[in-house]
Amino acid sequence: MTKNKLEITDTTTGEKIKEAARKVFTKKGYAATRTRDIAEEAGINLALLNYYFRSKEKLFDIVMRENMQQLLIGLRSVLYNETTTLLHKIKAIVSNYINLLRKHPDLPLFILSEIKANPDKFAMNIGARTLLLKSHFFKQVKETGKGKINPIQIIINIIGLTVFPFIASPLLKHVGDLNQKEFDALMKERKKMIPIWINGMLKVK
Amino acid sequence: MTKNKLEITDTTTGEKIKEAARKVFTKKGYAATRTRDIAEEAGINLALLNYYFRSKEKLFDIVMRENMQQLLIGLRSVLYNETTTLLHKIKAIVSNYINLLRKHPDLPLFILSEIKANPDKFAMNIGARTLLLKSHFFKQVKETGKGKINPIQIIINIIGLTVFPFIASPLLKHVGDLNQKEFDALMKERKKMIPIWINGMLKVK
DNA sequence: GTCTATAATTCGATAGAC
DNA sequence: GTCTATCGAATTATAGAC
Fold first, then answer.
1. Spans of all domains in chain B
2. Of the options 1.10.10.60, 3.40.50.720, 1.10.3720.10, 3.30.1240.10, the CATH number for the domain spanning A1-63
3. Which residues contact B190 (CB under 8 A, 6 or more apart)?
4. In this complex, which of B117, B155, B204 lies closest to A29 when CB atoms are compared?
5. B6 near A CB under 8 A
6. Which stretches of A104-150 are DSSP H helices?
7. B46 CA to D6 C1', in Å?
8. Secondary structure of residue B30 in the 3-state scheme
């Protein structure tokens, strides 16, 4: 939730290639990406790409690892803070992720597609699981819902309400007849509304 | 919301190939799919696939068109029914889509990925837009929210809460430590809960 | 209609000069 | 480190026999 690694503009050749790879992979997915496109985007030669990263797959793994880290950076400090209210945490999570996704709208669809395409590669360390399940945040959700609602459902809703519009943006823009500016305004409004909606879910019934 | 075209088991060779193509395309995406895989899945030869459908892309277009239709079948009759309440419509939409997605969980991620990869190909007829915007359902959402809430936000939420868990299921199963059976139980529960949550959103604030 | 064999192309990766 | 040129594998598509 702090600094944005995806925006560092390093000038070394290796970094130039990685940034080009991130851009092309994220836009087209692993299978549809040609290493030639990455080389062109980076303004270097195809051979040089293999010189630096040995193979398409190794380059992909590095880029993807950094993408995942990007999404988790700062999350722990929010989830495990024992001095803030649940509502405060929800506001922080939603607001920070919407800010991030407005800068990198292709990220979630890309990551979820690649996880589905290769679940074993992302057979994540138990850490990702415990990060959520052992957190103070999770306890707060459980307590606030007090047996009336499965906390997992609330987690799904927070993430879904936040992330889904970016995943479906081409569709939403079309059926909702929205241009980029209007879409962006909707996302800004959601930063305010999602915590209110979630709060309602925790009290309903 | 009625019959399920994806489940028709036609015995003609053309249909066998189409069903195999749907299965492989949906699982792996267009770029990662090899026509050889489709042929093998269909139990026929690679040459025969081209004999029937001329090219990988033409076969894909046909399958995708049917997939999209599948998602819209029966929707019009719900959206334009002037005799049912808004809550009743929401229940019908959510329940029917969750039922469909439990049978075809890969469908949304596949379709949204391919739309993003090739937005021009899906430059849909104005029909898809007006189907929603001119509907009685949309009027009801607008009225019920009475200026306090943008109806588009509510639409996003209905679809997002319904579809997102299927898009993110590999991730959810991992971080939530859920097996398929538990995941399925959550989705069943959401059929009941989503209309309640949406109802809360329409009254809040 | 269905098959085997192969042409034609694309793409990841490497050899080798500078 | 960086380039040009090319190899070799994979893949779509087709030719031609049955």
1. 7-60, 74-203
2. 1.10.10.60
3. A153, B94, B98, B161, B162, B165
4. B117
5. no
6. 107-117, 126-133, 136-145
7. 30
8. coil
> Domain B74-203 is in which class?
mainly alpha
C1’ C13 / CA B60, Å: 30
Mutate to test the interface with B, among A106, A130, A153 (most CBs of B within 10 A): A153
Q: B190 at the A interface (CB within 8 A)?
A: yes
> For A96-152, what is each residue's pLDDT tens digit?
999 999 999 999 999 999 999 999 888 877 888 999 999 999 999 999 998 899 999
Fold of the CATH domain B7-60: Arc Repressor Mutant, subunit A (1.10.10)
Angle at B146 between CA B140 and CA B150, to 5 degrees: 85
Report pLDDT digits (tens) over B30-82.
Answer: 999 999 999 999 999 999 999 999 999 999 999 999 999 999 999 999 999 99
Question: What angle in degrees, to the nearest 10, is found between the helix axes of B136-145 and B180-203?
Answer: 60
